[in-house]
Amino acid sequence: MEINEAIKRAKSNDQKAFNFLLNLYWDDVYGFQLKRIQNENDAEDVTIQTFSRAFDKIETFDEKYTFKTWLITISKNLHIDLLRKEKNSITQVITNTDKKAFQVLDESPSPEDILITEQHLAKLLRDIKKLKPHYQEIINLRYFQELSYKEISKQLNEPMNNVKVKLLRAKKLLAEIIQDK
């Protein structure tokens, strides 16, 4: 399949075209992020978010530009957003006799937060059960057992790209179920 054809087919929601583009550009985007972040798991997460955002917005892609450049730009912006969020979690710097200390927000949950989270978790689990079993399994492995893509690939005995695509699809379907409520 040619790149321009794949993009056209992806714009018409062709899953095979999405897989083709993901397989073709995964290493480029992942390598770009790995150089910036220098952490494999975080680089994988940002790369998946990049493809998710790109595929959600693929109809806005202008063929005058290179698809790879477009993906890298999305990836760079996601990384910048991530850095901003991390920066905002540190509230202020306190200086004490040449020593610097960071005052970090107390993010430990209160008893009320725990109760609310448990209720939300129960609702989320009910929504997850509405997915097909293979999507339930991949969400469980990634988010509840916190396995890496490589570990999931080994456990399911599937290529890593299949795992990435399944997870991307499972998240989209779950988001649709939650939004429909």
UniProtKB/TrEMBL annotation:
UniProt superkingdom: Bacteria
Example GO biological process: DNA-templated transcription initiation
Coiled coil feature spans: none
One Pfam family matching this protein: Sigma70_r4_2
InterPro entries according to UniProt: RNA_pol_sigma-70-like (IPR039425), RNA_pol_sigma-70_dom (IPR014284), RNA_pol_sigma70_r2 (IPR007627), RNA_pol_sigma70_r4_t2 (IPR013249), RNA_pol_sigma_r2 (IPR013325), RNA_pol_sigma_r3/r4-like (IPR013324), WH-like_DNA-bd_sf (IPR036388)
Residue ranges of domain RNA polymerase sigma-70 region in the record: 25-87
GO molecular function, one term: DNA binding
RNA polymerase sigma factor 70 region 4 type domain ranges (all copies): 125-174
Family: Belongs to the sigma-70 factor family. ECF subfamily.
NCBIfam families with a match to the protein in the record: sigma70-ECF (TIGR02937)
Name used for this protein in its record: RNA polymerase sigma-70 factor
Organism (species): Algibacter lectus
